[in-house]
Amino acid sequence: MIKVLLAVAAGGALGSSLRFLVSAWVVANWPRHYYLATLGVNLLGCFAIGFLATLFVLRSDLPLPLRTGLLAGVLGGLTTFSSFSLELLKLAEGGQYAVAAGYLLGSVAGGLLAAWLGMCLARC
């Protein structure tokens, strides 16, 4: 268990650092389009988690610390949107369409509402 935890921690540090570097680069080169950094890492993370999660099902012989370190660590540090996307697809693939729709709506609308409430509270 400790090996898995250390792999997630190291991967998280790497993913967070990559996210910071991408954001810094985008802001330095395209300051008016700062949001492209988030869009880019989210799309990259979604592609990577789809690819790796499928690969790891096919290659379960790969060590658990490596698999978890990449998925929960690197991609979790890079973007949580990738985890959200994978979970949403798993719900839909499992035929849980109502749960998937609720998760989608709750995450997007709920996240926007929570961010707005946080902004309002900070301005008080």
Question: Can you walk me through this structure?
Answer:
It is a multi-pass membrane protein. GO terms for molecular function: fluoride channel activity; metal ion binding. This is Fluoride-specific ion channel FluC. With 124 residues, the protein is mainly α. Helix 1 (2-29) runs parallel beside helix 3 (64-78), helix 2 packs antiparallel against helix 3 (64-78) and helix 2 (35-58) crosses helix 4 (81-93). It is globular, with a radius of gyration of 17 Å. The protein contains five helices and no strands. It has one domain (1-123). The mean pLDDT is 93.
Lay out the secondary structure.
Blueprint: H1 2-29, H2 35-58, H3 64-78, H4 81-93, H5 97-123
The number of distinct helices, counting runs of at least 4 residues, comes to 5
Runs with pLDDT <50, length 5+?
none
The end-to-end span amounts to 44 Å
Q: Class by helix and strand content?
A: mainly alpha
Biggest sheet overview: none
What is the domain total for the residues? 1
Please tell me what the overall shape is: globular
Tell me the fraction of residues in β-strands, as a range.
under 5%
Order of helices and strands: HHHHH
Number of strands: 0
**What is the helix content?**
over 70%
- The value of Rg in angstroms is 17 Å
Mean pLDDT: 93
Family: Belongs to the fluoride channel Fluc/FEX (TC 1.A.43) family.
GO molecular function, one term: metal ion binding
Main location: membrane
GO biological process, one term: cellular detoxification of fluoride
